[in-house]
TrEMBL record:
GO cellular component entries: endomembrane system
Name of the featured protein: Methyltransferase family protein
Topological type in the membrane: Multi-pass membrane protein
Keyword Transmembrane: yes
GO MF entries: protein C-terminal S-isoprenylcysteine carboxyl O-methyltransferase activity
Intracellular or extracellular location(s): Endomembrane system
Highest taxon of the lineage: Archaea
Amino acid sequence: MSPLDPTTHVLVDWALAIAAIAAAGVYGTVGVTLLTDLRFWPPGDADWKRRLHWTFVTAYTIAMAVVAVADWNGWMLARPISLAVGAPIALAGGAVFHRGANAMRTAEVAGVTGDLYTDGPYAYSRNPQYVGIVLGMLGATLAVNSAVFALLAALHVGWVLLLPIAEEPHLRSAYGEEYDRYAERVPRFVGRETLRRLGREIAAGDSRATSE
């Protein structure tokens, strides 16, 4: 670990300022959705709400990238173990996220009502994209090895855990009992049913391989 040089320190300070504004925007709009009758998330057909949310998220992501580069390996985690463990977790999180995202159309991710997805990754978790983000943030935190990055990752995970809670009233309104039945059998993120289903899939795959 080594202290940041003055120029890098200023860069990190600016990144933190941008991240703070962006995080306040995301938490603020999600909080308004949760606590009032106004709905900012999911934005639905309101293009300006969608643009507002993704402007905040994009700014926050850029700030995290700046911190990752500027404060790389600036913390106390043991090297190379943290990198060797963190990188595969981050890649796995990215794979889970993209598999969940590819199963839905962009408009449906944003809350424009379409089909209720219950197959593929959505048979294991109601929010596989968010599970992927959480895994990705955990892996990236280990790989980057920066206390500042860890703080930003924790804030990111915090709003990711709130987003589905904000989405569920819209989903129940749109799909009614169909969504209620889905929610009863599939966990919001990951649960025992997720592990059971994965176990059954693995066992079935082994059985097919043995029979061949």
